[in-house]
Amino acid sequence: TSWQSPEGQCSGLAGQPVSDKDTFTLVGKAVLKNQSKVTFGHRGFKPRPPFHQMENVFSYPGSVSQDLWNKGPASLSNVSHLKICITHVAGGGLPSIKRLEVWGQPAKSCPQEVIEGVFQVASQFLAQDVGSVKPEPWTPMESDCVPFSANEQQTLHKLVDVVQDIPEEFLDPITLEIMTLPMLLPSGKVIDQTTLEKCNRSEA
């Protein structure tokens, strides 16, 4: 999951070539083993009136819940674009997204009628019984999914801590591991040589 700030968008419109790496910031990653749903939440999110009357983060039964990574003051605020990438699919399945919900609130600079309109739509949505799936309060990752072993859990926490502290240009965009032998592809993307070798072996 990557966010884009309006500033990045404006520089692109001015005729300056802007790459995804410059425009988007990686703020979340999920590895789904036996689940098909994931919920990302921002713990520092503070709803402004009139949205403070609502529950600001939802999780659904069977959903993996994770915090978004905070990578600076603008990484999780003033977002204008969202980029979602499916990097791996097990068992040769087709990658697809059946449903996507993005919950937030209008900017302070929006006209009052826009804010009221968004609030009205959100209130109507929450009042409906959507399918028989009722939202429930945000819960930790382990609550509704098949539990990881202690070692797997420890490794996952270490990986998340390490990834947050490493500049994005040093990470392989596919595996999110530190690149030991970076290679420039014809497309202009940079990946690790081991990733390319694994890809070639799987296609051979």
From TrEMBL:
<dbReference type="InterPro" id="IPR045696">
    <property type="entry name" value="Ubox5_N"/>
</dbReference>
<dbReference type="Pfam" id="PF19318">
    <property type="entry name" value="DUF5918"/>
</dbReference>
<feature type="domain" description="U-box">
    <location>
        <begin position="165"/>
        <end position="204"/>
    </location>
</feature>
<feature type="region of interest" description="Disordered">
    <location>
        <begin position="1"/>
        <end position="20"/>
    </location>
</feature>
<protein>
    <submittedName>
        <fullName>U-box domain containing 5 transcript 1</fullName>
    </submittedName>
</protein>
<dbReference type="GO" id="GO:0034450">
    <property type="term" value="F:ubiquitin-ubiquitin ligase activity"/>
</dbReference>
<dbReference type="Pfam" id="PF04564">
    <property type="entry name" value="U-box"/>
</dbReference>
<dbReference type="GO" id="GO:0005634">
    <property type="term" value="C:nucleus"/>
</dbReference>
<dbReference type="InterPro" id="IPR039925">
    <property type="entry name" value="RNF37_RING-Ubox"/>
</dbReference>
<dbReference type="InterPro" id="IPR003613">
    <property type="entry name" value="Ubox_domain"/>
</dbReference>
<dbReference type="InterPro" id="IPR039847">
    <property type="entry name" value="Ubox5"/>
</dbReference>
<dbReference type="InterPro" id="IPR013083">
    <property type="entry name" value="Znf_RING/FYVE/PHD"/>
</dbReference>
<dbReference type="GO" id="GO:0031625">
    <property type="term" value="F:ubiquitin protein ligase binding"/>
</dbReference>
<dbReference type="GO" id="GO:0000209">
    <property type="term" value="P:protein polyubiquitination"/>
</dbReference>
